[in-house]
Amino acid sequence: MSLVLDSSTALAWLYQDEVNALAEAVRRRVIIAGAWVPGIWRLEVANGLRTGLRRRRIDQNYRDHALATLAMLNIRVDAETDKQAWSAALQLSDRFGLTSYDAAYLELARRRSLPVATFDTELRDAATSIGLAVIDDD
Description:
This protein is 59% helix and 7% strand. It is mainly alpha-helical. The protein has one domain (4-129): Rossmann fold (3-Layer(aba) Sandwich). The strands form 2 sheets. It has a two-stranded parallel sheet with strand order 1-4. Helix 1 crosses helix 2, helix 1 packs across helix 3 (41-54) and helix 6 (88-96) crosses helix 7 (100-112). It is globular, with a radius of gyration of 14 Å. The model has no long low-confidence stretch (mean pLDDT 94).
């Protein structure tokens, strides 16, 4: 697996007005080498698409097709996320002022020694400060 993929990056693939060079570079990398996500990832993606549906950015057919497309990618859900929630992830949340959700991505990347793909500035800064690589559009 090549990286830890956060929901902001995956959602950027799905909303045409958010697609950019970085999102496309990450998507290509995930297609080739796969990605890891914490156990909350599917819920966050579903919520992001639900919000788009509610705001009429997308319709239900588009949402369902987007989910089917994501399901075909080699994205592995980490089974340890829940076990880390009250320990390592919480410590990272406290240390960097991250939400528990964002800390789950950071904890996973640190534990697996993988770079992070995110558009979240606080998560990017936290990853960099603990020596993790952050995917950019190079």
